[in-house]
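ARCHIVE CARD
Drawer: 12
Card no.: 0347
Subject: one protein chain, sequence and derived structure
Cross-reference: see card 0346
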Amino acid sequence: MQDDIRYMGIESGIGSIKPYNPEKVVKQRFGDCKDKSLLLVSLLKKIGIKEAYPVLVNTSIQTGLTKLYPSSEIFNHCIVKFKIDSTTFWVDPTIMQQGGDYKNLSFDDYGYALVIGEPSDSLEKIPSQNLRSAVKIKDELTVKSFSQAALLEIKSTRYGFEADKRRIGLEQYSSADITKAVADDLKSIYSVVNQTADLIVKDDINSNIISTTYHYEVDGFWKDGDKMSDKNLAGYWIFRFEPRTLYDYFRIYSPGKRKFDFAMQFPLNLNYCVVFHFPKDMLINDKYTRYENQAFFFDEKTEQISSNSFQITYNLRAKAPFIKSENYEKIYEEKNKIVKALPVTIYFNKQ
């Protein structure tokens, strides 16, 4: 249903408000959200699932639906709800390349829904357990010497809804386009970035886990303290590392008071680990910092893992889909404080 019936609507005339007959949708092999939802409901009932219903939602207002008066104008998307043995399942038939079985499907946070055909006098809350999503990213930098290029391996593993989104991206863009985009982003940290191996993709669609591994050679990131204006840096190799992977997740708009709640990326469950291997022994102090508020949880752990290696592990988890307007200013200041403290400067004595 998701992959073989194209998601496309010709929404003119009656087709803009009334779904086409399921037989017509099958023959033309495309339909909009209401066409695909009605077809899926029809197919479920054909195989004996009696409690299957089209469901109206709003992809942007979401939980704010409960504050509006009833109207046919407040819904902009259609999905499906069905029951098997008294257990309720939800599915968005417009999502392509979705992994997992019907018991573990994930989809966006639509908040509240109007179920068509099921007696009710109110909107139904879509349970949050359907919002399965996680990302694990590991960057491993191996520095052979201060005068040679280093090796960088990036491996990301995505689960649930994040795996669905990545799978769609891999379907729409070539491996060359994806690896080039990653390389272009890396150039904000490393002035020289060369791909050394093809992109490796492993997709366990049944468990809905997908991993991508990139290999690059990077150079030009060490600064020679002898050539810098600050004389205190003479005699050192210096590298300022910025965890740019986190910056997009910490993005927030301008400071100040707000009249309305601020939408966050949700669900969000990110684990990001950066491992450094150096050509000389070093000694660092282990460190742990933690932040938590109404909107998100974040912690950062720095630890030495060998005589010449250390790693930094970051965890970021969204606790709610919105930052309440009255909390926005405080949370903005806290995010800004975290971002300013993220860069790490590494010094090595030249002797």
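Annotation on reverse: The mean pLDDT is 91. The helical segments are 22-28, 33-46, 161-172, 175-186, 244-249, 328-341.
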